[in-house]
Amino acid sequence: MDAATYFKLPGHPVPEILPEWAPFFDGCRDGSLRIETCRDCGRTQHFPRGQCMRCGGAVDHVAAAGQGTIESVTTVSYTKDAFFRTVAPYHYALIRLPERVKMTGLILGDAPQIDERVVARFGELSEGSGVWGVVWELDRG
Ligand SMILES: [Zn+2]
Question: How far is the CA of 24 from the centre of ligand 1 (A)?
């Protein structure tokens, strides 16, 4: 399944957006993966916390390249969640970004290999929800 097909599936869970997460999800709507970057010390961090975890400084939300590398991965064959049961089996990975952060994400398509490259794909989580999210596809082009 590719990202375009995935985002057309009905019934995707829509998260409650906490204030510190709003810039991240707004970025997804704009096709941009936003990473918190400290104005004072330059540290990048994910997940969003609203302030730097090293020095307490204010953060900007900087667009990442939208690419990453698989650090670890598992395949989910069964889940209690009704939506994700329609998608299973799927792959869930820890992804290392060049911006020096890691994030977890759903990998569409074939099972990825460790150190394989992936690219971010964005879409509305459930039609009409107004909330956009990110999934990842293998970068085998
Ligand atoms: Zn800092």
Answer: 19
Domain map (residue ranges) of the chain:
3-138
pLDDT of 103 reads 97
CA 53 to ligand 1 center in whole angstroms: 7
Judged by DSSP in three states, 27 sits in: helix
Distance 46 CA to ligand 1 centre (A): 13
The residues of the chain scoring below 50 in pLDDT are none
Q: How much distance in Å is there from the Cα of 66 to the middle of ligand 1?
A: 23
